[in-house]
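Long-time lurker, first post. I've been practising inverse folding by hand and with some scripts of my own, and I keep getting stuck on stretches where the structure tokens seem ambiguous. Below is the full token string for one chain I'm working on. Before anyone asks, I'm not after the true native sequence, just a reasonable design that respects the backbone. If someone could post their per-position residues I'd love to compare against what I wrote down in my notebook.
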């Protein structure tokens, strides 16, 4: 049988420490935070960094959008192709500064970081997922599908 305790608003807003709980170093009122394990696959981290470099080079028109084909889904390439305007002569090249990777699911990684263009620091973010990719025919065998890491979203700040 559960016991119901009714407290006033003042009791809820001002927590009390029980005399039985020794307070040494760590507050007895706050739970211990555990640092999340960094289970990031080094190959996916490397792919994320490479993808961000390539996206910045495409935006700067130092690389054609078609070179993203091995690592990006087709709609990302189309969006970058459409958004890249004529090359500005005075525009400085973007430099990737930091890249971080988070794993919301085992088959998806979110990549975010910063890049610098001149004196300005801006944000960049993307998402890499394991998606089915149709591989070309080899030696007359039928085409097959394989799961590969692909850039499925990108956002430049």
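-- Answer (accepted) --
I ran through it position by position. Result:
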């Amino acid at each position: 049988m559960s016991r119901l305790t009714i407290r006033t608003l003042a009791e809820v807003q001002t927590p009390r420490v029980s005399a039985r709980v020794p307070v040494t170093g760590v507050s007895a009122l706050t739970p211990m935070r555990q640092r999340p394990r960094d289970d990031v696959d080094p190959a996916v981290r490397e792919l994320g960094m490479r993808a961000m470099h390539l996206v910045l080079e495409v935006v700067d028109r130092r690389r054609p959008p078609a070179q993203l084909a091995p690592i990006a889904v087709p709609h990302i390439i189309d969006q970058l192709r459409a958004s890249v305007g004529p090359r500005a002569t005075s525009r400085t090249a973007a430099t990737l500064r930091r890249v971080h990777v988070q794993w919301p699911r085992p088959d998806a990684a979110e990549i975010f970081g910063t890049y610098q263009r001149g004196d300005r620091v801006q944000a960049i973010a993307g998402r890499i997922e394991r998606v089915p990719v149709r591989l070309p025919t080899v030696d007359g065998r039928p085409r097959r599908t394989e799961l590969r890491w692909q850039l499925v979203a990108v956002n430049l700040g």
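A couple of notes from the structure itself: Residues 12-19, 21-30 have pLDDT under 50 and may be disordered. The first strand starts at residue 95 and ends at 105. Happy to go over any region you disagree with.
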